[in-house]
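The methods section describes the discrete structure representation at length, but only in general terms. The central task, working out the structure tokens from the amino acid sequence alone, is never made concrete. Nothing conveys this as quickly as seeing an actual entry. For illustration, here is how one protein appears when written out as sequence plus structure tokens:
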Amino acid sequence: MTKPQLPKSGFTRRSTAEQVTNGVDLSGKTIVITGVASGLGLEAMRVLAMRGAHIIGLDRKLEDAKAACDQIEGATTPFACDLSDPDSIVACCDAIGQQFTSLDVVLTNAGIMAPPYQVVHKYPEPLEIQFAVNFLGHFVLLNRLMPLLKAAPNARVALVASEGYVTAPKQEGIVFGDLDCSAGYDALTAYGQSKLAVMLMNRALASRLEGTNITSNSVHPGVIRTNLAADSDSFKVKLIAMLAGPFTRTIAQGAATHCYVAAHPSLDGVSGLHFADSNQKMPEGHALDDALAERLWTKAEALAESYLLKG
């Protein structure tokens, strides 16, 4: 699938979320953001609410989502959504559907990076937790929220991926025969696989949404000073964190591409692209493989079949 090359936005890696949304009026818009309790999700919620949007703030525990929403000036509604538990996702989406008639944006900010080995046993086969949360949990969430996105005049999906997708398994990209990493767990490789899966989901989703009122694009926020990998016991991750110090950006800068892709009017109708530093960036390698994207989509449907809306 050939994608257009957009003109430069005028923003850089040092631009902040407030700067990329300066002058953007989101009054009347309703935006779902996952992982709002801290870091990039909290900052994206703050800035998009400041621009007039009603933010539906999701986090694993309701008290954490509520505490985050209580910090924000503007309209917010908290919900509990544990992305490692499809029953929690379904309950959350059903509750949102009872209170809201349409959604303008879903921003899939929540994610985990390089944790100690953990397996999720909520699907027909066991899944390594990064794959389950970063990819499949959001796959289920988007499926369940799709009717509300279709009800908006124009809607957007902003999928938070990562340039860390390049650490996915070199040969296969997605190791379909070992999604629980039982054959051997490398935290950074598993993280890369989960984020490659998000990149591929964006391609497959954008293809399916072509000709509709909904667009989908993926986001790389950059290397940010957050607590994302704080519980990692991976030597490689700790070394990268130490060496990356001078190249990291602030949370305000890290949330910029989130907010740009979610809300900037220049991206009206733009779909199937990847963004970093609030500008289009061409993916590489497996992230361009449409056949792999379709295989992954089919696998996700099979894994999550009992939790998905049909049609």
Q: What stands out?
A: The chain has ten helices and ten strands. Strands lie at 30-34, 54-59, 76-80, 105-108, 119-120, 127-128, 155-160, 214-220, 274-276, 279-280. The first strand starts at residue 30 and ends at 34.
